[in-house]
Amino acid sequence: MAVENAAPSRPVIGVQVYIAAAVALVGLGVFAYLQLSPSKPAPELPLSSEGRAYIKNLQLSGVTMKATGSYANQTLVEIEGKIANTGDRGIDIVEIYCVFYDTYGQMVYRPRVAIVSAKMGGLKPGETKSFRLPFDEIPDSWNNALPQLVIAGVKFS
Asked: How far is the C-alpha of 101 from the C-alpha of 144, rounded, in Å?
């Protein structure tokens, strides 16, 4: 009986496998970049002269503020209220500035936030809707008073 001393055969990896792996890695890199890169903020809605004239028809009411502690030793400040459209035009978007002040009356924080959006169905003439604005990045120098709410942008339907 003859015993053959043959070396075990190794699978041959073709060029196609290397190309497929490279394409997969590049694709994964592009996907990760798109998912992890910061998104561009939406452009601010300008307050046109038409919107400025209509502001008298947008009434804020029942505005309250409460603060709660979180597990991460942060304070979450929530501002809740209602906005009513007493005019005769439909509104898609209303953005406001929430102006926070320190004990000396100096502005310390001024975020611009939407209280009416197209996603929530806009605001029809004669309609009232509730809003809730959570804030967790207010500087410690804030005077803990209700911020000034100023309408910053209006988009009509």
From this structure: 8
